[in-house]
Each structure stands twice: as C-alpha cells, then as structure tokens.
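Batch manifest, entry 17 of 40.
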Amino acid sequence: MDWALEFYTKQNQWSGVYEEPINEGHRLKAGWIAELTGTGHKRILELGAGGGQVAAAMADLGHAVIAVEQAPTLCAHAQQLAAIQRAGQLSVIQADFYTVTLAEPFDVVCYYDGFGIGSDADQRRLLQRIANWLMPTGSALIEIGTPWYAASVDGRGWRVGQAERRYNFDADGCRWLDTWWPIDQPEQQVQQSLRCYSPADLRLLVESTGLQVQNIKPGGTVDWAQGKWLPIVPLAKAMNYVAQFNLVHHGK
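Output type: structure tokens
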C-alpha cells in the first residue's frame, strides 16, 4: 500500500480534484447518513477524507465529524474547511487510519472512494478496526467498486486537467487499476489499485471481523456516450455501491 500516498498527492497536483469546492456530489454523500442510519445528529468518523469536502458537507448538516487523511496537501485543504463555521463540528487528523488511535466510539464510520487499497487481509484488518470504533448500535458505510464495471472500462483513457488517465482491470486479482501521468510524460505515471468486491464476496470477506453486511445501496455510473454522470442505477450497472455494516451481536 506504499503507492497510496504518492498517488493521491500527484492526482491532486495534476487535477485539483481534492481542492474543488463542495458540490452536489459531496452533499449527496452527506445525505446518506440520514438515509441509511436515521435522522438526528451523529458522531461520525470519516476515513480517507481527501480534501474534506464530504466531511464538511456532513458537518453542515449538524453532525460532529472527525476526518482522518494521510496526505499532507489533502489534509491541509480539509483543515481549511474545518476552520469555517458550520452547523456541526469538523476536526481533521493527519494520520494513517491503519495506525491512528481514536479514543471515543462513533455512531457512524464512513469510508468513501478508496476501499480495497490493500490485500484481503488488509481489508479485514481495517474492518476489525472499524468494528472497534463503533457504538453498539452504530453503522459503517463503505463505498466499494464493482468488478463488473471495472471490467467494462478496461483500457479506457481520457484527459483530466494536466494529466492523462487510463483504466485497466486485473481480472485474476479482481483489481481496478487507475493510472495517471502528466500529459506527454508517461514515465511519471502513478497507479491506484483497488480490490473490487461483489456483495457476495464482501459477505465472505467480512466474516470474523465483528461486522455484518446489513444493506447494499447501489451507486451511479458514467454514461460515456453522453459524457454525464448518472447518480442512481441498478446494482448490475453501478460503478460502485455503499455497503452498510452493523456490529455482530452474539446471543447467549
């Protein structure tokens, strides 16, 4: 997973994606808290918070949010957003979420756009950490890439800001590869590698982590022919989905 810090830093350097204003997509994700976990203000932990836009949008809804982000430039932008007065509270911690120490439990732990950066064992270790961070009645919301979408865009490339971008799919490892490089400088490429999971595979992955899959919410997809984002599509067409996890409570 050593590639992750360099990848997200350079992706932002070339595209500015983690320094953009809070937009409708960020607000949509913030709204998933009430949709999936119920109304009322929550204590929320966001892992891999990027530039902090979703965390800030959740704080705007009155939630108390702690955002964890490892990349310094992304974290700095999130901290700028945290300095603005909001309906709730936003605190930002620069740290690796595999090693960070967090004292208090949370109503919701969320992780959007990044799950799968390591091996299956790494994912299980993270899920176990998330289980330990949750209140007994809490939920985890994790956005997960689908293998069928990743396979469908294998080889597709386009320009984003100052960079070229290309998707590939590792069918044997079931990993979605996302490669970026400065225009006309392919020797500087960096690559994101995310393990994709169908809901059935996710249910196998989560066994013995202390969590169980409670709900699957299909996400959106790109209409490449029309060049637009479709925010809600059937699961079989979705680029990703949000899995809602609850704690496993063993009876006597």
